[in-house]
Design the sequence.
């Protein structure tokens, strides 16, 4: 009602892949999982939370239930200002909390004052629509895709810069731990920075590191002598299975592998991937649960419809190399792409003469035989 009535022309409901902000109803039984999943996939994307427990969401833009239309409109304007500030709340004077119909008192959460409602009603809005790629460029795009310019792949020196070796980084050790876990059920990575536990049967990984701590670990090479990958004992795995649902330290393997690959590759591709081999999408990725890079939907649609090489994708979609390379690296890390074999038809060195010559051919042969040598 808010988008088709008083807010018409100012805000637009769109698909998650092109959204600049999110509106979350966090009162369901799995609200905590939904909230953690949103923050993991969109760490810099602002969000508006509707909940009967506003005090739970510290430092968040939240409106208590039941939601009143004027409160929602004021919150949407605050959300738009938040987007324009690059995901940071705009500076303002301390605000009074808004009381709900149930008489909820002051809350530590970021509440909407009644003064904002008047400002929201008197402001001449511009439509709340920006490009997803442009918004990411202003925020976190460089963390996932880097900022390298397009390379001249015919130059060996520049060609070398588009590749990276995953085995030198945390990404490679996580991949090796997954292989071991798939063989025996579970594996552990141990190093000076902590440990990571991988349980392949439930598709979960446990690491007591925030994304802010994990990203620096992904971008620097790790010494092999300082990292150990070991198998988990059956008794230990049984004990860990009961913790998966109840602990915030656990997260799904595919989103973890995906974001680690983006952080590590930063717009590059794994060593040894040829640029001229057609890329084929095995099946459509669940982009609603994965970190999105610019033009991800366009690239996926192209590879799903017709296999195309990496450089062919760049030329076809007219987008920077780093966007194509980053998306490929993420897909490659979770096994969703394959490279097709190029079959080149061999042209025979000589074409045998036909045994069935036409009339003109026979006449020319007779003329050649009858002609005296010069």
Sequence:
């Amino acid at each position: 009602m808010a988008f088709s009535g008083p807010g018409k022309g100012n805000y637009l409901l769109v698909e998650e892949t092109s959204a600049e902000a999110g509106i979350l109803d966090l009162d369901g039984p799995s609200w905590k999982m939904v909230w953690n999943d949103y923050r993991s996939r969109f760490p810099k994307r602002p969000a508006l939370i509707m909940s009967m427990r506003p005090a739970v969401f510290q430092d968040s833009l939240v409106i208590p239930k039941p939601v009143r239309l004027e409160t929602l409109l004021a919150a949407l304007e605050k959300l738009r200002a938040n987007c324009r500030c690059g995901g940071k709340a705009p500076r303002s004077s301390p605000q009074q909390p808004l009381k709900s119909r149930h008489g909820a008192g002051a809350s530590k959460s970021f509440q909407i004052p009644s003064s904002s409602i008047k400002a929201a009603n008197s402001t001449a809005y511009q439509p709340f629509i920006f490009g997803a790629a442009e918004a990411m460029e202003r925020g976190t795009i460089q963390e996932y895709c880097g900022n390298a310019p397009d390379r001249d792949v015919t130059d060996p020196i520049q060609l070398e810069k588009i590749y990276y070796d995953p085995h030198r980084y945390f990404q490679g050790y996580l991949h090796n731990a997954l292989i071991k876990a798939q063989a025996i059920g579970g594996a552990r990575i141990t190093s000076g920075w902590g440990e990571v536990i991988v349980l392949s049967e439930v598709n979960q990984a446990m690491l007591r590191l925030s994304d802010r701590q994990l990203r620096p670990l992904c971008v620097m090479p790790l010494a092999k002598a300082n990292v150990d990958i070991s198998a988990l004992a059956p008794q230990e795995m049984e004990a860990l299975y009961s913790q998966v649902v109840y602990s915030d330290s656990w997260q799904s393997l595919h989103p973890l592998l995906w974001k680690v690959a983006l952080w590590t590759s930063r717009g590059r591709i794994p060593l040894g991937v040829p640029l001229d081999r057609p890329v084929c999408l095995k099946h459509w990725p669940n982009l609603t649960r994965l970190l999105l890079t610019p033009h991800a939907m366009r690239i996926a649609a192209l590879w799903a419809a017709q296999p195309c090489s990496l450089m062919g994708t760049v030329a076809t979609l007219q987008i920077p190399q780093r966007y194509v390379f980053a998306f490929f690296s993420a897909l490659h890390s979770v096994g969703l792409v394959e490279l097709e074999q190029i079959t080149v038809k061999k042209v025979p060195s000589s074409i045998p003469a036909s045994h069935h010559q036409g009339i003109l051919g026979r006449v020319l042969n007779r003329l050649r035989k009858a002609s005296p040598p010069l």
